[in-house]
Structures are given as C-alpha cells and as structure tokens.
Specification:
heterodimer; A: alpha+beta; Phenylalanyl-tRNA Synthetase, Chain B, domain 1; OB fold (Dihydrolipoamide Acetyltransferase, E2P); Phenylalanyl-tRNA Synthetase, Chain B, domain 3; 6 domains; five-stranded antiparallel β-sheet; B: alpha+beta; BirA Bifunctional Protein, domain 2; 2 domains; seven-stranded mixed β-sheet
Amino acid sequence: MKISVNWLKQYTDIDLKTDDLVHALETKVGAVEEVIDLSEKYKGIITAEIMSKKEHPDADKLAIYQLNIGGKEIQVVAGDKTLVAGDKVAYFAPGVKVPYNAHPEKYDGVVSKISLRGVESEGMMASEIELDLGADHSKVMRLDPSVKAGESFAKLYDLDDVIIDIENKALANRGDLFGILGIARELSGIQGKPFSSPDWYAKPNIEENDQIPLKITNEIEAFCRRYIGFIMDNVTISESPTWLKSLLSKVGIRPINNVVDITNYMMYLTSQPLHAFDLDKVLAKSGKKETEILIRLAKNGETITTLDGKTVVLDDSTMVITDGNDPIAIAGVMGGLDTEIDNTTKRIIIESASFDRYNIRKTSMRLGLFTEAVTRYTKAQDPNQCLPTIAKTIELVKELAGGKEASKLYDNYIQPVTPKTLDINIQRLNTIIGTELSKDEVATILKNLEYSVEESDDMLHVAVPTFRQDVQIAEDLYEDIARHFGYNNIKLTLPSRSISPASVNQMYEFKRKLRGIVSGAGANEILTYNFIDSKVLGRYNINLDSAYKLKNPLSPELEYMRYSLLPSILEKVSFNMDQGYSKFILYEINKGHSKDEQDEEGLPYEREYLGAVVVNPDYKGNSYYSSKALLSKILKELNIKTYDLILLKDAQEGKSKWTDRYSKMLDVNKSAVLVINELYVGVVGQLSTNVSAKSKTPEYISMLELDLQTLLPLATDSYGYVEPSRYPKTVQDFCFEVILDTKYKDVHEMVERVVTDIDYIHVIQPLDIYHREGEEKKRVTIRLELQHRDRTLTQYDVTQLRGTLEKEIEKFKGKIV
Amino acid sequence: MEFKNQDIKNTYDKFNEDTNSLPLKELTAKYLGRNSLVKELLAKIKNIPDDQKKEYGQQANELSRYIEEKLEQISNTPIFQGTKEYIDPTAPFDINQNNSSEVYPKGLEGTKNPLTQEMDRVLDIFKQMGFDIIESRQLDDDYHMFETLNIPKGHPARDIWDTFWTEEGLIPPAHTSTMQNRVMKTAGQPPVRCVIPGMCYRNEATDASHEHTLFQIEGVYVDKNISVGDMLGTIKTYLEAFFQTKLEIKVQPAYFPFTEPDMEFVISCPFCKKTGCKVCKYSGWMELMGCGEINPFVLREAGIDPEVYSGFAWGFGLDRLVMVKNGIQDVRRFRSGDLNFLKQF
C-alpha cells in the first residue's frame, strides 16, 4: 500500500523527518517495503514557456523552439510540431535525469546537449510518460496556462513528496488501513495527537431530487450488506486537473478521466471501493425505459466482457450487478466494458456498496482477477463508510466534471452495523502485555484513534468506531494499545516455573538413539518426501489401494502419500551409484500413513518407520545377509537378544502387514519378517529378480524396514551384564553336521542353552556354514569362548560339554564332526 | 507373437513395455477396461475392408487373450520366477560365504542429516528451558488445522491453493500450529510448556529457496499472567543460546488469526554482528519468526479459561536457518538423498 506523505499531511500534522516516519511505521504499523523520495526523482525539472517556433531546415519532422526557462532563453529541437508561443511545458536541462526513461535502448535517461540534424538542442521538453504521470508519449505535455516559467516542476505538482510502500501482508486484517484516512489516523495516534475524521466523513450530506427515477433491487442481501446508488447528470468527461493526476500517479494508479479518477481517488482515500456506470449505456443495453439495477448471483455460463476487454464466464456463486437483465459488472471486482465511462458520457450512476469478503475472494481467485477493489473488499470493510464516501464523490463530480444531482439516494441497508462496546480491565491489560500503563495513558491512546472511552474504577468502557471492523474482542484493543505504546518498549522478562524437568518424549528419544546407532554403523541419513509417484510404486509392485491420494498435488509425481519408506529410499540408489559411490547405506526415519490404520482420534495412524537400503557389491552371498548384519547391530544396541526371522513365504498373510505390502516386491524366498515376542516388527530382504530388472536396481542391494512403535517397547536398557571371571578362557570350535533345512538359530540356541545350564561364562561366535553341492547335509561351525567362574576349565570339562552337545544335536538329526 | 495389422502390433508392443512400469490396476484399466485400447481396436473393425475383417477380428481377440493371461499371471504370482532356493534367514551369513567381514560393507563413514542434527540441538535447548517435546502430525484434519486456530470455514486462509488436501478432506499440515489444540488439551490445565517440531507441507512451486516440505518448530507456553514481555524474553533467551551470542531484537506488527497481539521477531544478524553480510542482505537484521499472545478463542477451544490464563506461541522454520548457517545454497539438497551432500555432515 503506497502512501504519499503530502497527501497524509492534508489530514494530520506530521512532525517527523522521513527516517523517523519510516521507523515509526515499521515498528507500529507494519514492514515498509520501499521509500521513494520523489523530490529526487523530479530533481532539476523546471517549467518553461515557448517564445517562438521555427521549422527545421533539414528535417520535416522536427521543429526548433526558443524557450524562456526563467530569465534565460535557450533553444530546443523537438519532434512535437504542435506547440505554439505561450505554451507552458516541463523542461529537462542537460544533466537532468528523466523520471521515466521511455527509450532505455537509446540513452541512459540523462539528458544532454545534442545536435539534431545539425541544429543544437539544449535539453528536452517532457512528455507525460517521461514525467511518469501517464502513458502519453505522442506529444509534449502542456502545463496549465497560468504557470510561470522557471519554477520548480516538482513543487508545482506536489511532487516534492515521499512515497512509502507498506507491505500489504502486514495490513492483512486492517481494512481501514487501505485508505489514506486510516493511515493518517494511525500516524496521528503514533505521534500522540488526537485525530478527527473530516466533517464530510463524520456528517455526510447529500442533496437528492426526483429528476431521474432509479430502481435498485438487491436479491442477495446476505452477500451484499449495503448498496447505495445515485444518479448525476450534466457530466462533462475530461482530463483530471493536474493535482489529481499527480496524486494518483504517485500512489501507482493510472489517471484515466475525471470521473473514473474521482472514484479511484475516493477509494484510495477511504478504502471504500466505488464504481461508476454510464447511465445511457446501461439503458441502451437493457432496452428499458427506466434505469434499473438488479444485484444477484450470476447464472452458470453467463458471460460479461470486463473493462480490460476480456470475456469472463461466470458461475452461480459469483455476485453480479445487472441492468435488470444482464450483468454489467462483477460485483466488487471489476466493471463491464459496455457500460464504461468514456468521452461521450453525460449521465452516470455511482455505486458505493459493501460485499461479502469471502465471496469476493473466492470469485477473485477463481477468475484470476486481482484489482484494488478486491484488495479492499477481501478485508473486513465498514458498511457505514459507504455513505460519506459517495457523498464526497458527488461533491467532487460537481466540482471537477460539472455534474448535478439527479435522483433520490437509493440506500439498501437492512442490518446496519453499530459500534461495538468492549471493556478493558487495566490490570489485566498490563499483565498480558507486560507494561505499567495508567488508565489515563490507555484512554489517551484510544481517544487519539477516535475510540470513545468511558472510565469506571479500573475498567475502561470503549466504544469501537465501525471503521475498525477488525476489533471484535478486548484483545484486539490490547494490540492497538501495545502497538502504539511500542512493542519494542516492552520490558523483556522470563516466566518462572518449577524446577521439575520436562517430560521425556519416548519416541523422539528412541529415534534419536536409532540415528546414533545406524549412522554409527556407517549409514547416511536421508530425508525424502511423503509424497510419492504411482509410477514408482508400480515399479516396486506396491499396492496403491492403501495409500491416501491428494486432490491437488503439485505434480503427478507427488500424488500419493506413502505408507512405507522403502520405495522412496530405493529411488535414491541409482543416481548415487552413477556419481561413483559403489558401496553405501542409506536410511531414513520418517512416518507413513495407510488407509488401513486409524488412531484413537479416527485419523490416519502416524506410524514411524526406520527404512534402510544397503548397497554392498563386495559380498558374494545373498545380499539379504548384508541387511541382516545391519539389523543385528541395531538389535544388539537395543539389547534385544531374542528374536526370530521367518521367511516371507512362510509368514502368514493378513497377520503380517509386511507380507501384504512387500511380498510382490521382495524375493519371498530370500526375505524375512522380524518377529519379537510374537510381534511382527519389521522386514529384511532383497528385491525379487523381476522387480530388480524393472527398477534397474542391482541384485546385490538389500533392505530393511522396522515399525518403531512396535519396536520401542521391546528395547531395553538392561545389558545382561555378567561379572567377568579371573580364570583363563578356553576356546573350542565345534562343527555340527545337520540336515540342510536346519535353522542356524536352532543350533545356536541349543548351544546357548547347554552352556547356560552349566553356568559357563560364554561367547558364541558362528564361524562357518558349509555345504557341498548335491549333499543333503550342511556343516555349521561354532566357536565357543568359555570361562568357569571359580576355576580353570579342564579337558574333562570340555569332553563333558562335547558329550552334552552331541546328545542335543541328535535331536536335530545331526552330529558333531 | 506375430501380428499383421499395424495397430494391433503397436498395442501389443506397448503392452509388453508397460508391464515393466505400470501397476496391475492401471494396466488392466488401460488395456481391458471400458475405454481401453483393446476395446478401441475391436471397435475399429468397421473400418477394415470386408475381406480382411475375419483375420483382423481373430488377431484382435488373440491379443486380448494374451493380455488377459499375462495380467492373470502378474496378479497371481506372489513368488517371482528365478529363485527356487530359499535361504536360512536366521544365519549370520550365507552358506559357503563365511567371510563375515564382507557381509557388512566395510569402511563406511556414517552421517546424520544436517536438518535432524540441528533439530536435536534446538530441542536440547528447549528441553533445558523446561519445554516438553511433542512431535507434529503429518496428516491431520480440517478442525485442527484451521477451526481450532480461529480460522472458520470460508476464511481466506483456508484456500485450497495454499494447502494440500487428500480426497477424504485430510490435510498434510501447512503449519505445526495444527497441534496447538491437542497439546493444550493433553496437558489438561496449564501450565503448558511445549515445543512442537514437525514437517509442514506447502502447495508451492519449488526452487532453490522454496520447498513443498519443510521442518518447522512451534512453541506454546500457557500459564497464569503470561505476558508479551515474557514471550519476547523467552524467545530472545532461546535464540541467544542457539546462536551462542548476545543479540539485539526488534519486533514488527504482523497478523495471524490465532494470536493477538502478534508480531514478527527480528534479530541482529548473528553472522555479521549487524555489520552487514550476504545472509542478512546487508541490512544487519534477520527476520526469524512470527509470534504472539494466543488468541482467547484458541484457548477456550482447548478448554482453557482465557480470563484466568494467558500464553504465547511462536513458529519458525528450520530449513532456512540450517542453510544460512552452513552456506547451503539450495533448500532441495536436504531431501535429495545425494551422498555428495550428505557425506559433508
């Protein structure tokens, strides 16, 4: 929102220098985006008078002018041959920089003394575009005849001004601050001065008559809370006076003609958008004898050509202003082209209305139309401001366009907004903000902003003027008070609390611990997106049915929400290999959401997973074992000593979600489900050859995924410590020959049981599993490191042990060799 | 298989290609469904000259049968061909492959993601200040994401252009504030001192400084007589601990529907100590986070009486901070899975 300091000064004194003013705005209103010192922009530009004109001897399109620039005469050559003696123009002397460079390809914007076809030209006369006051560059801009030569152009046109642009985002809830009056009021308060709204704002006065009948029907009072319409005739459309053109240009609004400029001027002043229709065009369009305006919702498929020349298709949620039949404006957004004000306009209908902000925003976004009116209507606007705004507009139309009042004032305002009363407890205010303001200080701040304040005990009863639609609860007043007191003046304190420690978030600490374990094991932690591509899931044969689908994804690659991590991690493998990394482990700890799982709130269960992919080309055996080795490390660190791994092909469907999810992605003969205490905790495995080929992933890759909510309670801090013995260790290797199908686990557990029974301190280490091609048996070699607590172990002990082991292994149809 | 008709042959080739990339459901819809390619082929028979109609029809049917069989195969095979043997999953290494030193890849240097590392650091500081940690949800409902935060239905902030929605109307949250109501309700009655870390999702096109997925950290503090002064003091204390240097602070008015008064918290640039650098765009100041006193509506909705209690909340993003701290130029690197990036941490 661009504000002109000179314009503000018309409504409040500003005793601050520019820097202090900007600082005050930044700290008490909102972030300032830009500060433009216009006097810099228009520096050195002076007025001049044409004294005489001569034809250029060598150029048909040029003329030579003698200019009086105030006590001095100079010569300028120009392409505009229509100037005559006595014309007043704006003059750029050599060295002056033009406010707007219309030909950046020809020069850098700094005027110089040049020779045009052999004739010297000392400087340049300004066109409207070069003065950044409009779009016309076809001729030199004529100034008012009463202007004297040699005067400062900036001063004359109120361009020694500073323009401050406040970030719109900071004003998001302040509908009143999109008008100069509102900003002036704030600045007044900031300077500690009381503000009074101008008379025409506080007490609007309109003269109505019966000249032209005006019928207005509002069919959508729920969306259009107030509609004021008024007719003026005898209007002469012309250029606006320079003060108005200059004012609008300064704040970024293009001047068009006097009536349109007046409506824009008033909107910018009060934040109340207005619209003017050409009455005769409305009648011509409707074909009716009498002027009619009907406000309704559009019908599906209805169209309108808007002021910018585009044809827009409407639907039944859009508010439209119609001529009784067809739309002549998209209400609150943009007017129609065929009822626009132009040079032929003689009679106008002025509209000042209040529209539902949510509806306007929806319409604006759907149609892609973002106008100054939309900016204002999408904030809460005060319906009461419609009347003073149109009253002042009528005055201006009379003054600048010769118009005359020509109808009754039509004002449809069924449920007027009345001032709200809020109570402030001073103690509470000071407690909440952290200040020590007295009742009087608070009352003064509020009264300066035009609140009405009554005092009683330590309460203030505040009547909120309706132009502050953003103030609905006492806390909104706290904000006004705190802001004007100055947020940066508030003393910094710290709340006190008991010394009991914050509660521990078990899952968070668990995940942190896991990260330490897995990164410590040589893996690199990655983060990937929760959104995934159906093509990726298809590549890994992952079922889409359980995945949540987005209605509005950023792209088709981000359409589904994943319920497991492995596909996303697998996708990161090949490009890393392309970069030369041949051996690595990637892992991620993150959440997955499945349609099959809900929590106590009935929302998708936020399941936490650890997923890891191991790329180990060096191992010649099945890659499953590389991931299993990682799993073993993890489980050891978590002190989980007892667990089982069941081949995926044997794990019952339905009981294990891992089977349901991954049996088509993983090789079910070379992948297993992790089971601890009968709970299905995770899966370890390698891709099936089919999926490996489809996804172009090497076969030496393996992976694991663990369900952390199930794993967490199984982890323990108990290390199972055993007091070491001071007696020497004995190391014995045993080779068990068992049938091929025997699980290693069974052999290991048997050995463990045996040495535990005889209470030997032990370390059991698998050495080898050997199988000769064609044979039905395999040989499992295990190394035992043994110690007795109270003595040195003897050969006899070893023989006894061997005997026990032999007996036990026979139960597995095996023997010791 | 040989097909004479070019259309039929093309469809056959395309199908074989697609079996490598499309999931079963899509394959079935594309080739055998209502408006499928096979149906198209069969419909085209009327354009075939009469003497070739019979052959065309036979070939189309042959293709249709082939596709049906193939799809049947794919849906019925949980076990894929090529691996007849099964392994002993309980063994520490494979048969005849006892080189256990190579079972597990050797010589790897593990790393943690810089984002999670920084998150741990941030949360450690808050833990020391007495804040509980509750992680934010990654999929939530409309009520928590908007309604409990004083953003009723129809309010501009809800617009479907800002957030992602699932078909069921669930939302990957655009802000960690989605948890405010829950953490307050879980605490029962104040004091509530809670920090909420989590992923947030914004429907925004990505580039070097914008991502659709970000880390955010929210804070909530509710007790008796908690003031704006307390809020500013608490945030400053945390930031000075985080940047390990004294800081100057200033606040600017801002607007959030769930806080009142609300402001933007700005600090003197900790990287150049206010002298001006690339990080703070030579201004000497860094805008860090939004904060404010919790709107009484939000408190009431969580069962806390705003006449008795008050509190403040704040929210800031972690990604940008980690980027400027380490000189990372592109925010997308965090989630790239690129070892060239990851190994540096």
